[in-house]
Design brief:
Strand content: 15-25%
Oligomer: single chain
Order of helices and strands: HHEHEEEHEHHEHHEE
Distance between the termini: 54 Å
Number of strands: 8
Strand order of the largest sheet: 3-2-1-4-5-7-6-8
Structural class: alpha/beta
Number of helices: 8
């Protein structure tokens, strides 16, 4: 039997961790984490059962751990590459099979090189009827920034380099969970927009979060000033509101799945991997001001 080939190395995770440590030490903006943690609390409150052994995997800061406690459960074990109770690499989980009843992950799995492999490892460490609940940026997140940078660089230098990380598609998530062995997989999206005075404010926030470009194939030279100025102009021309402020789109993709157990309800038919966790769609949230 041949070994599974190594996944492609998409992200420079050593660089990512250095940037995230600096960002956390400097007091990184946490508005995305706070929003996701509020949503996590809402979702946990819909699940009427206890999870004695919970793991907070990869989430920077304490937002997700606090949401678990606010839902009435015990404080989770916090495990990530930056600190917490246990320092771990999300791509190589050190825990024994069936170690946890709940695994949550907040805004960190977008930077793993082998997402299917991580899902399989999470499935392994969950006890039967254990729940995996995670979120990560995906879909149309930062689509305006991606377009503006690519167009500006193409116009000025004759070619565009990857400047924004790729994001997952919600339509793929249910299938990936099923492949990893999860039952009752769910995938849905929280879509919203933030507004800034200019694209430069958005880029400052991304750098302050430690979320700047960490692609292995990123350009070796920093973005030229003339390219940045042209990108800002394109952004303002194409993605501004009547008051002159610009929009930045975000999609937070939520996924959940259960470790199989005989007591679980069986899906009505194969392929129903994108059913919502909640009974009804939430009311749309207003555009946030930044």
């Amino acid at each position: 039997m041949t070994d599974r080939p190594a996944p492609p190395r998409i992200f420079d995770r050593a660089l990512l961790h250095r940037r995230l440590r600096r960002a956390l030490a400097a007091g990184a903006p946490d508005f995305l984490l706070a929003r996701a943690a509020d949503d996590l609390l809402d979702r946990l409150l819909t699940v009427k059962r206890d999870f004695p052994r919970a793991l907070d995997l990869g989430a920077p800061g304490e937002h997700f751990a606090q949401a678990i406690v606010a839902s009435g459960r015990r404080a989770p074990l916090r495990a990530n590459a930056l600190g917490g109770d246990v320092i771990v690499d999300e791509e190589a989980l050190p825990f024994a099979p069936a170690s946890f009843d709940l695994v949550v992950s907040g805004m960190s799995l977008q930077w793993v090189n082998d997402l299917p492999g991580v899902f399989a490892q999470v499935r392994r460490i969950l006890a039967p009827d254990g729940l995996f609940l995670a979120c990560l940026p995906g879909g149309a997140s930062l689509v305006e920034l991606r377009i503006a940078l690519a167009q500006a660089e193409e116009e000025i230098t004759g070619g565009a380099s990857p400047r924004v990380s790729p994001f997952v598609d919600v339509r793929d998530m249910g299938g990936l969970l099923q492949r990893a062995g999860f039952a009752l997989p769910v995938a849905d999206v929280d879509s919203f927009a933030l507004r800034y005075d200019s694209v430069l404010g958005l880029m400052r926030d991304l750098r302050a979060m430690g979320a700047a470009n960490v692609l292995v194939k990123r350009a070796s030279r920093p973005l030229r000033r003339d390219v940045l100025a042209r990108a800002a102009a394109i952004y303002a021309e194409r993605f501004s509101d009547p008051d002159g402020r610009v929009r930045a789109s975000f999609d937070i993709v939520w996924i959940s799945g259960w470790a199989p157990h005989e007591s679980q309800q069986q899906p009505a038919k194969p392929g129903s991997a994108t059913m919502r966790l909640e009974d009804a769609m939430k009311a749309a949230r207003p555009i946030s001001e930044k």
